[in-house]
Amino acid sequence: MSHQSDLIAADILEYLKQHENKELLRFLTCGNVDDGKSTLIGRLLFDSKMIYEDQLASVTKDSGKVGTTGDRPDLALLVDGLQAEREQGITIDVAYRYFSTAKRKFIIADTPGHEQYTRNMATGASTCDLAIILIDARYGVQTQTKRHSFIASLLGIKHLVVAVNKMDLLDFSEERFNQIREDYLDFAKNLNLELSAIHFVPMSALDGDNVVERSTRAAWYTGQTLMEILESVEIAKDKNLENFRLPVQYVNRPNLDFRGFCGTIASGIVKPGDTIMALPSQKTSKVESIVTFDGNLEEAFAGQAVTLTLEDEIDISRGDVIVKLNDLPTVGKKLNADIVWMTENPLVPGKPYDLKFASSSTAGTVSKIHHLVDVNTLEQSLADQVNLNEIALVEVSLDKAVPFDCYSRIPGTGAFIIIDRLSNVTIGAGMIVGAASASDDNTPVTAAEKARRFNQKPAIIAVNAVNAEQVVQGLDRRLFEMGRVAAIASNEHAQLLKDAGLVVLVAGGADGADISLAADQESLDSLIADLQEQGVI
Ligand SMILES: Nc1nc2c(ncn2[C@@H]2O[C@H](COP(=O)(O)OP(=O)(O)OP(=O)(O)O)[C@@H](O)[C@H]2O)c(=O)[nH]1
């Protein structure tokens, strides 16, 4: 639903244009049962005039019968459609509500509390920019508050609003508010959160103090109201514009003359002329054009849905990732990740699962549980299995090497889901912490460390032989196994790679080949020995 605007009557096209260009903020609300979550959402909608009159009339009528607010409309009933379904036992993991104000568009992820909280919250939070953590001012920071905050930090939510609610019951005591803020900050310093990005707001969702309208009862509070925060918190700079990653969702080939790779840019910026590499094939080319519905773009960045066309006919399929040549993700078979377990059957090390990454799917196992994290106390403990709603740091071993990033840097290519092979249901979600090397399996190797190593001694293989594809596939595997990333390039791009300061070996073929090789194991071994001798790998 959208706010009322005079422009709707005066110039509907202009209104629609403005609306389309408004920034979208996704947030989620979390709190204990009865902290006032439904009342708060109802109040946000009501005070921003996003309730239709007939809805209000019906809520007012129902309030007398089933509400908890006497003869005032019980705004919690606005959020009741969901509740009714819950009571009928229909499982709804996350409900999304949409609204807009003159400044922004909003999506609220509303997750039911109760026993399955971790799973639900992880699902709702994974795409959110901001989380509202509700605290009942009478009870202060509770175990649940800590749990929600931990999950929010794990999922990389950058902005938190701690809504200290029901302040009307405590006469808007400044002292109580400050105490809660201190308690919360004391706990939050152990989390991966920027403390200065945490907002605290004293409010009464029931009476509307500091939700949309400024409270007259808390004159001591000079900060923003909740709505002011939601409308102004800076989220544009949360986007990673440094590391280009385009997971390919679809290959558009309407006729023989056009081949475009479509997807939503997970991070970074791309321009025509950029040299790119497709993973896992490691073929390189240059961006020819960035095509969108509204015409070609001079550049595109994180969050935009685009179609790239390339200068060369290279083979890229759905599930591949397009990256820039000078900024590659880690490619490997072992990684460390925080995982949230989402099903009754516990996670057991060694059991085969299917794992789905932004770019590709593969079979694999959890090879080691480093430790469980108690979501309430943040304490770590050893365990031989992970149960429903538990969170653990684990090592994952994959059947084939996949490209990946650290979740904290690039969530789009730093997350994966674990799928049950029989039921095809998602049973876990993982946030990648870094690569895990086979030789040093106790110490996580971060993606940055891996990149550093890679940059020191890159091994780029350029090929033009007829059977080179086959050869390089074998070579790739060996290089991956040795913890090195190799790249395949056409000869044309070999020069580009050289210009970029990378080591280039031209394998096979005639023109100017440094090394020629055939597709047999012996040649492969000798090539590897050569590379090792030269210190390339
Ligand atoms: N005094 C006071 N009561 C409030 C306030 N906010 C909510 N309440 C009351 O607290 C009770 C619980 O509110 P809800 O909004 O239903 O709480 P909830 O967190 O959504 O609870 P669940 O939907 O059960 O998860 C209701 O009786 C509300 O009227 C507030 O700011 N002040």
TrEMBL record:
<dbReference type="InterPro" id="IPR031157">
    <property type="entry name" value="G_TR_CS"/>
</dbReference>
<dbReference type="GO" id="GO:0004781">
    <property type="term" value="F:sulfate adenylyltransferase (ATP) activity"/>
</dbReference>
<dbReference type="InterPro" id="IPR054696">
    <property type="entry name" value="GTP-eEF1A_C"/>
</dbReference>
<dbReference type="InterPro" id="IPR041757">
    <property type="entry name" value="CysN_GTP-bd"/>
</dbReference>
<dbReference type="InterPro" id="IPR050100">
    <property type="entry name" value="TRAFAC_GTPase_members"/>
</dbReference>
<dbReference type="InterPro" id="IPR027417">
    <property type="entry name" value="P-loop_NTPase"/>
</dbReference>
<comment type="subunit">
    <text>Heterodimer composed of CysD, the smaller subunit, and CysNC.</text>
</comment>
<dbReference type="InterPro" id="IPR004161">
    <property type="entry name" value="EFTu-like_2"/>
</dbReference>
<feature type="binding site">
    <location>
        <begin position="110"/>
        <end position="114"/>
    </location>
    <ligand>
        <name>GTP</name>
    </ligand>
</feature>
<dbReference type="InterPro" id="IPR044139">
    <property type="entry name" value="CysN_NoDQ_III"/>
</dbReference>
<keyword id="KW-0548">Nucleotidyltransferase</keyword>
<dbReference type="InterPro" id="IPR044138">
    <property type="entry name" value="CysN_II"/>
</dbReference>
<comment type="pathway">
    <text>Sulfur metabolism; hydrogen sulfide biosynthesis; sulfite from sulfate: step 1/3.</text>
</comment>
<dbReference type="InterPro" id="IPR000795">
    <property type="entry name" value="T_Tr_GTP-bd_dom"/>
</dbReference>
<comment type="similarity">
    <text>Belongs to the TRAFAC class translation factor GTPase superfamily. Classic translation factor GTPase family. CysN/NodQ subfamily.</text>
</comment>
<dbReference type="GO" id="GO:0070814">
    <property type="term" value="P:hydrogen sulfide biosynthetic process"/>
</dbReference>
<dbReference type="GO" id="GO:0005524">
    <property type="term" value="F:ATP binding"/>
</dbReference>
<dbReference type="InterPro" id="IPR005225">
    <property type="entry name" value="Small_GTP-bd"/>
</dbReference>
<dbReference type="InterPro" id="IPR009001">
    <property type="entry name" value="Transl_elong_EF1A/Init_IF2_C"/>
</dbReference>
<keyword id="KW-0342">GTP-binding</keyword>
<dbReference type="Pfam" id="PF00009">
    <property type="entry name" value="GTP_EFTU"/>
</dbReference>
<dbReference type="Pfam" id="PF03144">
    <property type="entry name" value="GTP_EFTU_D2"/>
</dbReference>
<comment type="function">
    <text>With CysD forms the ATP sulfurylase (ATPS) that catalyzes the adenylation of sulfate producing adenosine 5'-phosphosulfate (APS) and diphosphate, the first enzymatic step in sulfur assimilation pathway. APS synthesis involves the formation of a high-energy phosphoric-sulfuric acid anhydride bond driven by GTP hydrolysis by CysN coupled to ATP hydrolysis by CysD.</text>
</comment>
<dbReference type="GO" id="GO:0005525">
    <property type="term" value="F:GTP binding"/>
</dbReference>
<feature type="binding site">
    <location>
        <begin position="165"/>
        <end position="168"/>
    </location>
    <ligand>
        <name>GTP</name>
    </ligand>
</feature>
<feature type="domain" description="Tr-type G">
    <location>
        <begin position="22"/>
        <end position="242"/>
    </location>
</feature>
<dbReference type="Pfam" id="PF22594">
    <property type="entry name" value="GTP-eEF1A_C"/>
</dbReference>
<keyword id="KW-0547">Nucleotide-binding</keyword>
<feature type="binding site">
    <location>
        <begin position="31"/>
        <end position="38"/>
    </location>
    <ligand>
        <name>GTP</name>
    </ligand>
</feature>
<protein>
    <recommendedName>
        <fullName>Sulfate adenylyltransferase subunit 1</fullName>
        <ecNumber>2.7.7.4</ecNumber>
    </recommendedName>
</protein>
<keyword id="KW-0808">Transferase</keyword>
<keyword id="KW-0067">ATP-binding</keyword>
<dbReference type="GO" id="GO:0003924">
    <property type="term" value="F:GTPase activity"/>
</dbReference>
<dbReference type="GO" id="GO:0000103">
    <property type="term" value="P:sulfate assimilation"/>
</dbReference>
<dbReference type="InterPro" id="IPR009000">
    <property type="entry name" value="Transl_B-barrel_sf"/>
</dbReference>
<dbReference type="InterPro" id="IPR011779">
    <property type="entry name" value="SO4_adenylTrfase_lsu"/>
</dbReference>
